[in-house]
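Side project, low priority. Logging it here so it doesn't get lost.
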Amino acid sequence: MEINFTLKKYIAHNLQTNMRFLYKTEADYYPNTIPTSIVSLVPSITELLCDLGLLNKMVGRTKFCIHPKQHLAAIPIVGGTKNIRFNTITQLKPSIIIANKEENRKEDIEILMQAQPVLLTDIKNLQDIYELIQYLGNLFQVEQTATTLLNKLHSDFQQPFLLSKSKSPIFVTYLIWQKPFITVGGDTFINEIIKYAGLKNEYESSVRYPEISFEELCTNQSNIILLSSEPFPFKAKHLKELQTLLPNKRFILVDGELFSWYGSRLLHTANYLKVWLSENQLLESEH
């Protein structure tokens, strides 16, 4: 599968144009040498790097980089995604830091860029992650592994699922937080997975993560309310409470990692959606 890589996404994407990025021009597309040490500040990309065979280059990760568990225990923790230990990263002397516009804070990235090369990613849809996988494969010279992964993902996500009520859209509200209720807009990766599940995001016309009131949750046209396991850990007790308050809505718990992690965890997402849709009697035919 050929993918048209858009280099500008990894130059100064939506940050200040005077900030120092690893790649500033087409001539700097690839360094003269392969980066030998990596600090990853993005949980889903940490897992992706490991699945590309780059665990031996990992020298630092955040405390939220938990997959693959069996391999990451020995990798030093450099703080959280939004409370980075700058001194620890400096001591590790990485040849590249991988960050994300959404996961990490702009002010932290600015500090890191003063001393170290930073690859800033911005993933909003499947095409974005396809391009990043291809790029990392070329950058670290693991092209064959990257291509194998890309081919599998391309096969899994060829088309959305067909639902039993597909003649009329099934609207959903995907909650990532309560008190206040926070949902997801149309420019998020979660929205992309909602679409591939054959569902319609109630807030697709909104941006990022809008806060909604309880009254709005009561009256919107969503048939189903999805309760994510992260970042707020919705559990059965929350479902029961909300179902009692809103008996005319259907509440369903979902695995937040499989809706929001955009690295190699996607290898598990298509099958998860198929099983989940089938269990909830929403699936019409084979994917």
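Brief comment: Strands lie at 38-40, 58-61, 96-100, 118-121, 171-175, 181-182, 200-201, 211-212, 224-228, 250-254.
Revisit when time allows.
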